[in-house]
Model the fold of this input.
Amino acid sequence: MFIGRKNEVEKLSGFYEGDKCAIAVVSGQIGIGKTTLLQEFAQDKKGLFFEAYETTGKHQMERLSSYMGSKKTFDPAGFCKEISKRAAKEKQLIIIDQYPNIVKADPEFDKVLHDFVVGEWKDLPIKLILCSDAFMLVDKYIKGKKAIWSKNIDLDLVLEPLGFYDSCEFFDDASPKEAAFLYGITGGIPYNLARVAALLGVSGFEDFGLTQVSEEDKIKQVAARLFLCGRSSVGLNPEQVMSTELRELAYYNYMLATLASGLNRVNQISAAVDKPKDVVVPYLNSLMAIGVCTKDTAITEVTNRKKTRYSIVNTSTLFWYKYVVPNFDMYMSGDIDGMWDHIKENIQDYMKEVFIKICGEYLENESDKNQLPFTVEEIGNWWVNDDEAGTTDGFDLVSLGKCENKAATIFAQCYYNNEPIEVAQLKSLIEKTKQLHRQGDAFYIVFANAGFHENAITISSAIKNIMLITLDEMR
Done:
């Protein structure tokens, strides 16, 4: 079942228009749904969808020729000539998935294909899409400065995980709190989402062959089947994904476990893994290059190198390194109850990170629909460092935007706990804004999964520019 990806389909449709040759690159991590998206897009179009296998150049051409219905084996030029003949009759959509597998096996194919694109195919209705799930190989063979394709790409489409609202379509009638947790552990990755849908018995996902979980403790059961039992987990293991890009995962794993524990500054990571900073930073750069980590800067101080911290991008990866890796013996032995007890001990810390992502998406969506008294142009965060304590304090979200064509700054705190928010937390948010030089009007937003105390609701109604939003309202 195809869910979401409206913007991506629109971009591909725009790319497909016209009667001249065009080149697109579609990339994204394993399990992100590239093949599903392109199969959906290619349904009513003439052409070919070829999956390049990791093999020799000769075998690759034998497979490609057979796929095209030819009894003889094409050489690269013969393949391109055949596409030219077909394009002379009707538009052709040529999709080559895992394209780096061809280039590694036969660099000549890459050169010949490019020569045809800029030469004989130039005025033919051929739309060529090159795909891969390996970021470093995409950069090396397709998008990097040394790649022959780098100046010919008409559409560069990097698939990201689905957002909270698209992900919820996989969760059927899950409550807002259940949906938030499921979104967190899946990370919005379609591979994981589809398996959760199958475990929940959602119509359209029966082909995955997974037994539906019972209603009792269904969230625990889904988490267990997805990640908590090494013998039978069906979720996408982030270490397996990284192993396709990186060699020797030992220090990468150590750094990610350190980040998941809450240590996010270079000096903290350096001390934890017992490596100097000039060794740690290249490792972090490699993790950023493949989309596993990101470097955060305060939204109003992007050039302040003292305000730099790192974080794990995807909440599914965060879940793995926060709960599975520290309890790996339980994971391998299948001690699901023991694993679940550890998760419950500090689930609010993890869910706050998930909730912040959901709140940011909510702000963007509501702004796009003109449902807010301001428009959001940029979303980030802001904090101050306490070097003695090794901690930071700030805002979960800070947005820069406009209100009535004038600059506006939006400050938000996201609370994920079991108690309704009281007046003290509202006052704390407003007081904290005095630390930051803001632009124009200020708006204050408090997001809370457990709602608000009556006194907070009363006070907020009397103070200009305060918004209180619950998880139930956001779902």
